[in-house]
Amino acid sequence: MNRETDRLADVLTEMSAKALVTWMTHSALHDIPREALLVRGHDFVYALQSNFVLLRDVLSETLEDIEQHSHDLEERLNNLEQRLLALQVVAGNRE
């Protein structure tokens, strides 16, 4: 993984932890039995983690697409620069 996806994974992990604490606090305030809380908590964490993994994958693919487009644009720009230099040489020879 590159630096951007590592940072994203860290942010998503922190968000998951905060969401879990919020959910657990809310559930505890509603007197949900501990056993039920553990089962629901596991399901909650699994669903949350799955969503974040999907989000990370989508953002990672988007980043890869942007990097590829950037590379393609750099190549096109270099080609245009070479053509411009060639035209300047031709124009200089005609003067």
Index terms:
95 residues, mainly alpha, 2 helices
Summarize the structure.
This protein is 93% helix and 0% strand.
Q: What's the N-to-C terminus distance?
A: 55 Å
Q: Note poorly predicted spans.
A: none
How would a crystallographer describe the biggest sheet?
A: none
Question: How many beta strands in the DSSP annotation?
Answer: 0
Helix content: over 70%
**Beta fraction:** under 5%
* Total of helices: 2
Sequence-ordered SSE layout with sheet pairings:
Blueprint: H1 3-29, H2 34-94
Helix pairs in contact: 1-2
Report on the architecture of this protein.
The chain is mainly alpha-helical. The chain has helices spanning 3-29, 34-94. It has one domain. It is 93% helix and 0% strand. Helix 1 (3-29) packs antiparallel against helix 2 (34-94). The longest helix has 61 residues, at 34-94. The chain starts with a helix and ends with a helix.
